[in-house]
Amino acid sequence: MKEQQGLTHIDESGNVVMVDVGDKASTRRRAVVRSRVLLSEQTFDLLVRNALPKGDVLTTAKVAGIMAAKRTAELIPMCHPIFVSKVDVRCTPVAAEHCIEIEAEARTTGPTGVEMEALMAAQVAAMTIYDMCKAVQRDIRITDCRLTHKSGGKSGEFNE
């Protein structure tokens, strides 16, 4: 694990601050986040057959995740509004585990990263799956949300 160099969102007096990225170089940046939604066998079957009462769950989750990534700075207080050049959300049913694997990818060229946008995309996609399945199952679990790849910027590349 990389050694910490202090908290970047706290000033010398202990006040919360937004980091100034104005002097940072613009680079191509990419982040990938994965998450899982655990379903019962019955709910999973209804989802893959597109037979749930609220409609096409996976397409709706993809669109919701993309929309969320574009609004990240409105919800995370110290997050910079950035130009997002690409967001993709891939929802893959895994029959053996009755789950949906979500992979969200965000890209930008700029002075700050896109990890928060990828995290937001994955989590909102997962919550959308939950919302669209909750009529038939209440104990759905959203698990394992984590950054699996980050590239660009001075901190270099990270891979899980």
Kindly describe this structure.
The chain is built from 4 helices and 5 strands; from the N terminus they run βαααββαββ. By secondary structure, it is α+β, with helices and mostly antiparallel strands. The chain has one domain: Alpha-Beta Plaits (2-Layer Sandwich). The chain has a 5-stranded antiparallel β-sheet with strand order 2-3-1-4-5, with helices on one face. A hairpin with a 6-residue loop joins β4 and β5. α2 (57-70) packs antiparallel against α4 (115-133). The longest helix has 19 residues, at 115-133. The radius of gyration is 18 Å and the shape is elongated. The N and C termini lie close together (12 Å). The relative contact order is 0.27.
Major pleated sheet: 5 strands, antiparallel
Find the structural class using helix and strand composition. alpha+beta
Please state how the strands of the largest beta sheet are arranged side by side: 2-3-1-4-5
Instruction: Average the pLDDT over all residues and give the rounded result.
Output: 92
In the CATH hierarchy, the third-tier topology is known as Alpha-Beta Plaits
Globally, the shape reads elongated
CATH superfamily: Molybdopterin cofactor biosynthesis C (MoaC) domain
CATH architecture: 2-Layer Sandwich
The amount of helix comes to: 25-40%
CATH class: Alpha Beta
What Rg do the Cα atoms give? Answer: 18 Å
Reading the helices and strands in chain order gives: EHHHEEHEE
The overall strand count is 5
Residue windows where pLDDT falls under 50 for at least 5 positions: none
Our estimate of the beta-strand percent is: 25-35%
